[in-house]
Amino acid sequence: MDLSARPDRGEYADFYAGYVDAVPEGDIRETLAAASREMEAFYAAIPESKGGFAYAPGKWTVREVLGHVADSERVFTYRALRFGRGDRTPLPGFDQEILVPHSNVAVRPWSELLDDLFTIRRCTLNLFRSFREEDWERRGEASGVEVSVRALAFVVTGHELHHRRVLRERYGL
Fold first, then answer.
1. 9-169 — its CATH code?
2. What is the pLDDT of residues 112-126, one digit of tens each?
3. Which of 13, 68, 103, 124 could covalently link to 145 via disulfide, CB atoms 3.0 to 4.6 Å apart?
C-alpha cells in the first residue's frame, strides 16, 4: 500500500473528506510525525489565560477545543487499533456534543490538558508505527461506514490540522 497516496473516497465517510484533503502530501507516517511536532509547539505557546475564550456565544472555548481534539483522536485511534489488528466488529459513532460538555476541561489544570493531548499523540504515533503493510489495508465499519486504517491516519492528522486552523483564524491564536 502506498502510504503517500491519499485514501480513495470509498475508504472513509464523506464527512471526513475535508480532514483527509487538509493533510499535506507525503508518507502519512512522516506527515503525522511532522504535524505532531508542529502541534506541540502551537498548543504549548497558547497562554492559559486564553483557555476560557470562545470567539462567539455558543462556540467552544479553547479548552473545549483541546479536549475535543484529544477525545476525537482517542476514538479514531481506537478504531485504527481494532481494524488494524483484524477486528472487523462494527463500531458505533460518537457524539462530540455529548463528549465535550462532560470532558471537565474547565476545571482541569492547563498543563494537564496539554500533557493529555501530547501523550495521546505520542500513543497515536506508536500505534501507526506498529502496523505492517497489510495492516494499513484493513478495513472495518465505524458509524455505519467502511473505513480503512490508512484513512483513519489521514483523519487523525487532518482533524487536528483543521482545529489548529480554526484556532488561528477564529480565535486569533
1. 1.20.120.450
2. 999 999 999 999 999
3. 13
